[in-house]
Fold each of these.
Amino acid sequence: MLHFALYASNHGFGHSTRLCALAEELINYGVFCHIISAKPAYLFNNLNPHYYVLHQRSIDVGVKHKEDLQVDLEKTVSSILDLLSQRNEIMEQEIEFLRREKIDCIIADVPYLVSDFAAYCQIPVFAVTNFEWYYIYKSLSVLPPTDSAAKKQISCCDKAEYETSLNPVLNLIWSLYQRFDACFQLPLSTKDSMSAFKEVIHCGLLARKKERYNDIRQIYGWEKTTSILLIMFGGEGKLKLNYEELCKAFKGIVISSQTGVKAKNHFYVPMNADFLDLIYNANIILCKPGYSTLAEAVQMNKFIIYCPRKNYPEEKALIAGLKKYPNCLQIDSLQKETQEWKDIFNNIQVSKTHSKLFQNANQQVSALILQKYTQMISNQLISVFDLGSNNLNYLLYDIQHRQIIHKTQLTTSLGKNFKNDQFSIRCLQRVQKIITPLLQTDAYLPSEKVLLATGVMRKATNATKLTDWIANNFGIKCKIISPQEEIRYVYYAAKHYESGEEASLAIDIGGFSTEFVNLNQTKTQPGYSLPFGLLTLLNDRYKDSKEAKKYIENQLDSLPYEGSYKLIGIGLTYVYLAAVIYKCNYNEVDKLEGKTISKDALQQLSHFLDVNAEINYLPYLLKESYLPVLKLSISFTISLLDRFKTQEIIVCNSGISVGYANWYSDKKANKENK
């Protein structure tokens, strides 16, 4: 499993919400994300908790503000200098963190210090942003004062003093950005706002989104035709606005996070409200220019009224990016009378045309990053998909160095409730929906691609409907493999456990079949495949534990093996079982390689489940629905231990996808050596 560290700038909420959107797509590919952000945890509530950890700290300072979100030059300068005075301590802390967590890649939005960390740890580092801090700080140093207050402040931090203080810092920031391996440039940016990066890769719109949105009119009992004006100024301070005058002018509901508004049509929401739902339901959005606010609004083709802050450099890039967006209006001030607001609302004309430029491209952004990452680490990759009865197991493998780059799996439940030797249309559609994001992302990667179908796919008479769909849509070579071929790949997955001193048996319990391979007989990889697995036990009449146990024992007795064996359990069945027994979080499952599962531990776990004490183990299951399968895997494994006269089974974290990759690498190497 790949582990990425995502660092957010400590400035507003936008940098963190963008990285949240990116993390969601990386997680769809099975990447475990360490998110480093000082912003509230609720911003990341939509992420799969098994695949990310939030580290609430910051390694940059952004821009400091005064009242009404005006830039405070003096505090900005002092905060940057204070940060850099702690550079060595920060670097020491982050390098230790990156090494401890075995981080494979850093993504920044867009703290500059991270290129130092990456250099020390020798890992790739990418930026994802619409601006960099060199551009912001350099632009601030040449801005003239715009009002009397600013002119008075110039005595404390005048332009010359600012430039003198910041010139060495600007040079440092420039050089740190130059060390990034690439920057993925988001829309709502300009060439000038990205000038510090040596390689810029253009990509689409990155913004938070949801699969389903709630109808807030229905939730709050408002009429379906009620117009909604949503006011949002981001997570950095407040802007002056006469809410009462605005509410008088708007014929509908005005939603904001401002407290104490005395207007009947004003509806207060807290800062931790689901703003994606609010944006989705709103007719008009009133905001300051900010990437995340604009991106989340334009992806839904919402009408935006925005009021720029004076002399804030990023807003020039944002406004330039909005030139091709028809549903927006720039106003020069928020201090307007009721009639002025009425005139604005009455003159709004909404275009239904939605340009591709302003549509969500989260998956594309994520896939481009993964594409660049894989190009940097290897030029000889293979993607192996193991489509079994309950899961799609995925492997990205470096053929040249015989090294696993990434592994993940998706629960498809393909064989669940399988009847009449055919998949239902609904089942096929559901599985296609589940596996599509992974297949789409892998399509960007420079790898050979092969899909091995096993278990229920061998039995289904319409299995080719699924394999043909995969081949036609994603260009993946698909093959429904025989039990003997599966036995071969089981052998190649577990052969490193063969000791030569004692008989070793590798066992792969799947959904619809179970394979046994004698690792000591290396020439022919002899083995046996029993035509049942955990899902067939679950689907058929063996739901009663005693009946299932009896059936398992009868099947095991039919095998020709005699005496005692060292047992190696390969694949997900034993990874999941060990994760529960050892109470191992999902991001740590690689540590389970070589662990032993004892009969005593299995019996203790079985007892806890029998007395309904499973609450202690649920955090270590990917899904609570796995419990019935877990109970069967415990019973099956105890029967195996008894049959082969041993007290424990060794966990092999590899499945047949790894076995295939190992076999393919050997085959290719032998061919090249001839």
Amino acid sequence: MRLRVVLPAMLALLAFLAYLVPTSGLMAVMRLTGPIETHVATIGTYASIGLGVIIVLFVLTWGLLYLKLIRPLEELTREAQMLANTPQDRDIQLRAGHLLDRLPVAVGALQKRLSSARAETSDAVAAATRRADEQRTRLEAILLDLTEGVIVANFEHRILLYNEAAQRILELRDALGLGRPLFELLTEEPIQHVLEQLMRGIDPSAQSDAAESEEGKAERHAKEQGSGQRTRHFVCATVDLGTLLDARMSLVRDAAGRASGYVLTFADVGPQLDNLARRDAILREVMIDWRRPLANLTAAAEMMATGAELSENERRSFEEIVFKEVENLNARFREASKSYDVLAAGPWPMSDILSLDMFRAIKKHLADAGIEVTLVGVPVWLHADSHSLMRALEHLIRHVAAGGTRAFDIEAEPGERYAYIEIAWDGEPVSSAELDRWLAEPLVGTVANRTAAQIVERHGSELWSSRKDGGGKAFLRLPLKPTTRPQAAKPATRLAPRPEYYDFDLFATTDAAMNDKPLKRIDFVVFDTETTGLKPSEGDEMISVGAVRVVNGRILTGETFERLINPGRPIPPNSIRFHGITDEMVKDKPPARIVLPQFKSFVSDACLVAYNAAFDMKFLELKREEAGVGFDNPVLDALLLTIYLHKDAPDHSLSAMANRLGIEIMGRHTALGDAMMTAALWVRLLDLLEDSGVKTFGQAIQISTRMMQERRLASKF
């Protein structure tokens, strides 16, 4: 309550008590001297006088308190508020005669200290702002001068900074912007792979312990320097596959040494290759085109040296030849020197590249010539001069296509000592003589128009053609040296696997003809989901779905489906640790009711395959009504068939079985990455099932049902 209300109330209470006590005492005395009725007039007189005195004293006391205390306090409050909101260099001004003693002086001192602190803070902020502006200006100047593109991104792969060179090189201005997803510009796999390599070189304690000692930081820094993990060189492509980029990545760290993002610097391969091509053309001219004038000079000099019998006219002719050829060589030398001086020197290095990126570029280039290239198999990392190798492969495919073949498969297979690029087609293999003739042709667009043979030799390899076992397909095979990238590290902690689900209804089919269909003749869509948790019936939702098509026992790498889904609920931290998908990544994505009809369109009537299929199918089934689409396709569970073929294996998880069957583990715990790995496993299973006598869909269903019953029974004991 306000002071001007409280004080009058207290004074009124005291006045009432001051009136009541004397009056009560007077009445008690009069009772002792006689009947009370005889003293009524006297009591009334004294009560009136007492009341009047009390009222006068109340008014005087209240007036004095108001003038000397309450009003000065209100004035002090207004002065303090005004000086706090509008700082002024003056003392607090109050009327004289107040009873506040030194309170106004103390409040004034506090106000002056507040003003001084504000001024100091303002000066410090202004100085820091000036320094930040100077640093930003310098950084902008540096970035503007760089010919390489620069992009800084956080660990959610959103762009925090970029320079004009990045805009110029990428030529995707609509997709390039602050806060935009990086993977709308560049292919994801190479960047994720290199980032994983860099993060592997960081001491995990540095990521969680901000109190790391200086000695510890220095030791970790030395280790990282020694292991070469501070910067990684690699090749990636733009998402439209129009540009190959020579890129480098390094981590952004805070003062405690924790990584908070990464920096990409990159350059277009094209200009470097053009420079190298012009330089090699100069060398080619020196080595080849100068032979004729040098030979003429040599012959003329020999004739003149031994030409005593030459007539004067003949000698003059030889002298004219010498002068003409010398002048010609001098002119050529001047032009060659001038051209060479403007070229940037340095060889084009070999780099790690994902086979999928290179094969997609080949597919795009050959489509213009009406040649269909199907990408099959699981992507493999290659170590190569990607541009020249791509041109050589296109060159070979065009020659084969000239014989009438218009459809090709291309894939890369990992081996123990080499990675093998294989181009397959229906028809006859290429003879050795014809292959040698193709390899000897110069390739326009490569460095110095090198021949395909030179490119193959540069990779330390040899190309051969043969026929595939047991079929009418021929192939060209090129072995390449293995990539220099380190093998994927095992996770530091083992994450909980998905629980096994069993659903007998998965294997119900009303199509009797389907049961007799050979497994290798069935079109499969191998898929996987990432979710908020492991309990679909208790509210967990899908946050991603990925799939790849498998036809005739081939993984069609170019036919994939991948979508992020907004689950409509927060993603638990434990799930984020498993798959890396955050709330920020899915907040602008469509819900399942939008994505699932798209997925159904991709699947069509193919047979669905998943690892622990009942888990993924349960999520699809729960969204049937909301999405207005049902997945009534035939379903096979790769987990159950793996258990049948490898009963004695100690671990039937997807990673363990992939490792057991020699499948390279990449992109784990992403929907498309797991789908790709399951597809590679599925292709191996098809061969193993056929060898064990399981050749038809119906037989696979019987085996799956039996395995399901056995697993369910075993879980009870």
Amino acid sequence: MNTERTCTSRRQFLQRGLFALTGLLSFDRDFLARIPVTQAGKHPSLFFSQDDLPRIRENARLSNFKEFWNSLVNADLAADKKFLVEELDIHNHVAHLLRANEILKRSAFVALIDENRQHEELATLTIEKILSFNEWDYFLEGGTETIGLQRAPETTLAMSFAYDWLYERISSSTRSAILDAIAKKGCPPCYLTLYGMKYPDRVKGWGFNPTSTYKLRFDLSRWPIILDKTNLKMIPIAGLTIGSVLLYDHHPDAPKWLDLARESLENFASLYGKDGSYLEGISYWYYTTQHYAMAIDVLKRLRGVDLRKLINFRGTMRFALQMGMPSRNYPDDVVNFSDAAASPDASVGFWVAREFKDGLAQHTAELYGAKRNLFALIWNEPSVKASLPSVDLKDVKFEDDWIVSRSGWGVDDTVVGMRSGGPANHEHADRNSVIVKAYGERLLHDPYGAAYSYTEKHWILRLTEAHTAVLVDGKGHQYHDGREGTNPSKAQAHVVQYNPGEKLSVFTSDATPAYRLVNEDVRKVQRTIVFVKPDVVLFIDEFEKENSPSTFQVRFQAFNVDGLANLVIGIDGQSFEIRRPFALLSAKVAGDCPVQVAQGKLDVPEDKGIFPYIEVATQPSKTATLVVACHVRPVGEVAAPRLDVRLKGAVCNVIFKTSKNDGALVIRLERDFPRVKFES
């Protein structure tokens, strides 16, 4: 790597790079057009060559891709044109530039693959409109210079794709204008962003462009440090990599840009676990991993640099698979810790399958990656045959201390996920929280759609009280106030016991450090999950205070996006049910002190949803143990289950008889963690 280039001072960069380039282009607008284009007369072939077109066209006809492909071809082009001509606001980077980028990528691709004249005309119009933006992002450094955190790298990518895919369909002047814009509005802002992350002490202050229509405002003073360890670093890396490769033989600063991009790729690899896990959650895993693969794919194809070993790509596809949780509401649902949405995109699995001849990656991509991403069509290699997951993948403790245990991979199988571990961008205050899905239904839920701004009332969806988790005197564990965005807290939890099995899985997480940050008197907040597959799930929550008594609450959140959840408290006051249209969860409660079972709903505006929960609370005490034994079953199952829970001293006995299980658990509450003995 050229150290001299990557260590160029900010003053040298500004004087020699951005200013020199601006001056050059202002005097000679045809400079780029006159430089010979690599592979003159051909597509630059960023991701595929002309020889790959038959394979991509055949992919578009495959049953797995056909619906998505048709949605691209048959998009409402009239509505898109109306938006571009009548509605587009060049100060609206967040929504309007994003939409223009999406239109451009889609229509440029369809124009090439389908040889579609209407899409070609729309793509050409979109290029013109994107070029009309004065800048491609809504963030500034020092109040004057654009930095590329989101839209600039995204636009660099979209315009690079268009340059490649429309190469023979657009004029030489349009090609020159695209390269000109990438060289002025794309690569320099991306470079400035990554430079600032590398040298945060040299940053003159990041902020928002006052001309942007974006309404939300955060304190960005620490963002060069904070974002260096988040997915938002990956998009400028990808934009700078691909933009500088495209400009490599056209612009004198492209090698310098590419050196920093490559160095950033290497540094970013540390955000993945050695097992391929990704702490920001599965939705951000998609966004990050796809752009990572795009960058290293282009480097390998066009610069001969092979960085495929930087992260465990095969492992990261197993992470995507194991975080999957198909349900009836969302066939491609996930264990949605943090800000993860219901439906991820695993299209990058087609690239992993192709590059590593990995049948399980192909299987994962076919499950979760064939619906809304044109790179699925680009990367799919039909000769790689999908292979099904092995039994040993049913239980996993990822390197970041997230645990997922399942009875199987189908919609009706049971999945139990527990969120232990440390802080991460986009996290929630969710240590020791649990998600349970069975018989096609989310039964214990982690709500979607938390606010990104602390000023909005549904910010509460990020907090402990909105999770199937624990409160001490009504308060959750430590979390930040949101003034710097959705950034990491200081909360830590640790898995202290992990014993997976085909029939019985037991795991314990200690979240005491996270709660002590709020209340130093806390001495123990520890949760053990006992999963007797497929239909019995035990919660064992242990609490301890040093001096003053506290009330301890354990909440169980119901899935209610459709308004069809029904929560019922038993007449004995020591049991409850969460009922959904296709499945229900029955629970019995035992404690070593008096407990009360109640129900409530989160204080969230109704236009954001209604979020009901069950709460099991102790009387004030310095120590307490709560055991909640849950049974999941499909609606309509005739046989009523037997579920008895007795807690006496340091021993808990659970006896159960269900349509799937018949046995007993003996649990000894020892100082470090409960020991579980199962007898069938």
Amino acid sequence: MFQTFTESTNPLDGPPRLEALRAELKDADLDGFLIPRADAHQGEYVAEHDARLAWLTGFTGSAGFCITLHDRAGVFVDGRYRVQVKAQVALDQFTPVNWPEVKPWDWLIKALPNGGRIGFDPWLHTVSEIAEYREGLKNSGIDLLASANPVDQVWPDQPPAPSGKITAYPLEYAGENSGDKRARIAKILTDAGHRAAVLTLPDSICWLLNIRGSDIERNPVAHAFAILLDNGRVQLFTDPQKLTDLAPAPDIDVLNWGAFQDALGALAGPVRLDKASAPIRISDVLTKAGVKIAYADDPCILPKARKNATEIAGTVEAHLRDGAAMVEFLCWLDSAKQKPGLTEIDIVKKLEGIRRATNLLLDISFETICGSGPNGALPHYRVSDASNRTLQNGDLIVIDSGGQYIDGTTDITRTICVGTPGADERAAFTRVLQGMIAVSRARWPRGLAGRDLDPLARYHLWTAGQDFDHGTGHGVGTYLCVHEGPQRIARSGTVPLEPGMILSNEPGYYREGAFGIRTENLCVVQDAPDLAGADARDMLSFMTITFVPIARNLIDTAMLAPAERNWLNAYHAEVIDKISPRLSDGARDWLGQAGAAI
């Protein structure tokens, strides 16, 4: 799954906003300002209150930033968003910049050869990020200055900060009570000689305290900061009104946001702080108070990623439930796509309706991506009234969707064809499928990371001179965020994969202006079954937990090796076995044909 977008220009009259921002910068004696996508919690998804980048520029991608100067404004995006940004920003006011090929400090040095003063909001940038900027700007005459956020000052109707209710997450789904988790993480602190840890990531806090929230749409997390002491006691900083329906444990102190900075200054060090995710403002407060900082990873990150047996069992059940809903949907779509007039919006509404008919869906896990024809070539596409297409004969449809259930979070992509696919489409689809199968079948020595597996997904595409500009897989939470770190299958995936980690497996291919392809299953890292032989090494493998058929009419079977064909037939047999008992009669019959051996 990937963050989506509506293909339209900014409806919010961006240029006057840009001029208002520049006037504010002039009053503050600043030559420019950094405007990130992030909020104070560095989440991929932000509340409307924190959507400053989108408000100013119109760009709604999940990654990117703007640097606004008095005579230019660059919107920095990576390869996933270079089509999207051109569709969303006013190109006479904002200039798309290819990032990370162009480093922001190099861009600044070129734009301000005589130096200057660049402001940034210290709550919206991490310690690592600002350190990297300062290193890049060394000896340039350009100074980075912490500042009040001028975007907030010129945004008259800025939505209020979210204040959704916080609820308890039942032990029957968490598999471990909060007290035991806190004791376990506190031991990590004491073993390292740390007296406390500052937690800023909402999903880490929710996991640690066995709570869930509703501050971010589609992600059941609560905005909060927390301080975990080495005795397991926690100070939770948020709006106490969020907890009116929940009685915290005696060793959890709930305090107002305003108490956070004073609490930081009162800590005894060393205090553990994750410089990759903590706002630099926290580091500055601790330093000013003379509190020693120990920079290290958020101590909840890896324990949260290693799902326990209860979480895995719940996630497996959620995927079976969701798989049955997907099969009911695909059965409907197989007939509906033959009728004239069906649109992308029709498909999105039908799929969500079928999921909700389970009466167990709490929310979709992200805005459904349904891109037909050329819209499918935009990996982050989100249909709008303006972009909505009527299906046409020969279209490929990329449908990427998921559900939030109390026992698990799902994410699945299937590519479907309307009518008869062309030879190019079938060849590309098969190469993508071969990559997905290669990752699914992989066995690897314990200790390898996602970057070591990523080439498996791309090999067949590379042989044809093709590739895709996103990672092969991301981590997934259990009734938490559909994108979860630190594990990922990508060139940047440096964290070793460990048993219990849930990841997506989703290679793709996109031909701009023509079609897109993506096939995605979720899988769990497990100990590999024993291999014969005295010299067999300690290996890991994946257990696939998504059970939905793959469109056989898009497969060029002549391209498949015998092992690939065997894997696909065995997968479809397992889909039929696990999903058929959960289906209506019509969908069961359809699945029997869709999953027939090739």
